[in-house]
Design goal:
This protein is α+β, with helices and mostly antiparallel strands. It has 8 helices and 17 strands. The chain has a 6-stranded mixed beta sheet. A 6-stranded mixed beta sheet has the order 12-15-14-13-16-17. A hairpin with a 2-residue loop joins strand 10 and strand 11. The longest helix has 21 residues.
């Protein structure tokens, strides 16, 4: 760990997936093999809490998905997801409704808070739980969930992910996020008010990057300074994501000669999955319908269908993939 930190002073900690009830967010400082016999790797994460963390990964987790310098979030099996708790609390007679959640989130909204982004994140979690047989989609925006959803969700994560879950939050180092057009991890921290970020270590670097990012957003007309405060534009993430997708789509259209077909919220996209595109806003799948192409939020489950026809429904920043329905002759 000391070698990975190149002599930079940090408090050192070993992440215990069974005991840690708090997540660790930070920059990948180093990675390697912890146990070659059982194909287990490790990460050294320079955390936003000012500490360096050694994280032993589950067996057969590919180290290539965590570039050095990228931002990750590690979560232990002892932690119940906040989204699962929210869904269970909002459910009435076992039914969770997105319109009800959106109303509640809108009532609690602030100028820097996008209620639709919050609901979309919960829908993505419900899609994963639906595939596991824990939740059921009754109708558009209506889900049937069990009373013990938080615990069953935790057990599902333990079974699927093993002792620790490490999520790639951004493949870009924070210094490259400062002036990029796209919905970045830094933007998410600005919206959240930089909560839980220390003033020292990597946390201090993040705070400086947030200051620079705020200046950039002001330059772009997406934020406004009022004294010491920075007021972010409404729907900031959606605006940045849309601008990046439009720019990328023009580049792909020029390369392929195909027309770009933007998708409206709730619209179904159908086509052959040609490739994925990694953007600052995340990874997107290119679907070719024979006339034009669309860019749809990518999920790992779709990668096995490369070159095949798939369908997806877009809801804000979330997506529901339909992979089992293939047309016959």
């Amino acid at each position: 760990m000391q070698r990975a930190m190149s002599g930079v002073p940090r408090d050192l900690a070993v992440f215990d997936a069974g005991e840690n009830i708090r997540s660790v967010v930070g920059r990948v400082a180093a990675k390697g093999m912890a146990d070659e016999l059982y194909d287990r790797g490790y990460l050294v994460v320079d955390g936003t809490d000012g500490k360096a963390h050694y994280i032993a990964l589950n067996a057969k987790v590919e180290l290539e998905q965590y570039p050095v310098g990228s931002v990750v979030k590690a979560r232990g099996s002892a932690e119940i997801r906040a989204s699962d708790k929210n869904i269970a609390e909002l459910a009435v007679d076992g039914l969770y409704r997105t319109d009800h959640h959106l109303t509640m989130a809108t009532a609690q909204a602030t100028p820097t808070h996008d209620p639709k982004e919050v609901v979309d994140a919960h829908v993505r979690r419900l899609e994963a739980l639906r595939r596991a047989g824990i939740a059921e989609r009754v109708a558009e925006g209506v889900w049937r969930v069990p009373k013990d959803l938080p615990e069953r969700g935790r057990q599902y994560d333990v079974q699927r992910l093993g002792g620790v879950s490490v999520e790639l939050r951004s493949h870009l180092p924070i210094e490259r996020q400062v002036r990029v057009i796209g919905a970045t991890w830094l933007d998410q921290q600005l919206i959240a008010g930089a909560s839980g970020i220390a003033d020292n270590g990597f946390g201090g670097e993040v705070r400086e990057a947030l200051r620079q990012r705020s200046d950039f957003l002001v330059e772009q007309g997406l934020a406004e300074r009022r004294g010491q405060r920075v007021i972010l534009a409404r729907n900031l993430l959606a605006t940045l994501r849309g601008r990046e997708i439009d720019t990328t789509a023009k580049t792909i259209a020029a390369e392929t000669g195909m027309a770009y077909r933007p998708l409206a919220d709730g619209e179904r996209a159908t086509g052959v999955y040609r490739r994925n595109v990694q953007l600052a806003s995340g990874r997107f799948a290119m679907l070719d319908d024979g006339i034009g192409f669309s860019l749809v939020p990518w999920r790992p489950v779709v990668e096995q269908r490369l070159g095949q026809q798939v369908s997806a429904i877009i809801r804000g920043s979330s997506v529901t993939w339909e992979l089992g329905r293939q047309r016959g002759r």
